Amino acid sequence: GHGFLLAGCMFMHLLSQRNRFELLDFSYHMLNVAAHEACQASDKNTMIGKVDEQMQAETDAFLVTAARTRSLNSLMFNLLETKFPIGSDGVITFHPPATDKELSEGQNLKKGNLLKVQSQRPKDMARAASAAPTAAPPSRAAAAAPQAPAPAAARPPPPTPSGAGAARPPPPAPPAA
């Protein structure tokens, strides 16, 4: 009877979305609000708003079901974490570009020269990736001077992703007709 719930937990775990789910799920939010209101009600013996008995009964039934569902989710997430641990990707640092060339390329977009901008992007990204992280950005005068790209042997290889998706082989090529 809990197949959809368990399958959903499995997908969320394998896609590393558990934290987002627990943050944005409405039933989790309602359980947290109910726990907060219970603390407030015991302190002051008053509530912010009064509701009729039918609404209170429906809310109580929803909270009981939500608590059971949260318990099942927690059990399933913990089981999946022990059997299929998902490592963190670590800290990702985004370095600024090596030059201010992108600023002048933005002007090309206004002129309709989009192909030139897109064709230069991979080279600029490789050049920015090979720049030292502690190097200060060049001045505008230095950026205006033409620069020769670094030789291919001097460039470091592009970073490879780490984590669950790193070991996947590329998809097979479609058969030739």
Automatic annotation (TrEMBL):
InterPro entries: Cytoplasmic_FMR1-int (IPR008081). Residues 97-177 are annotated as: Disordered. It comes from the Eukaryota. One of its GO terms (molecular function) is small GTPase binding. Residues 168-177 have a biased composition (Pro residues). It holds the Pfam family FragX_IP. GO terms for biological process: regulation of actin filament polymerization. Residues 127-153 have a biased composition (Low complexity). This is Uncharacterized protein. It comes from Rhizochromulina marina. The lineage of its organism: Eukaryota, Sar, Stramenopiles, Ochrophyta, Dictyochophyceae.
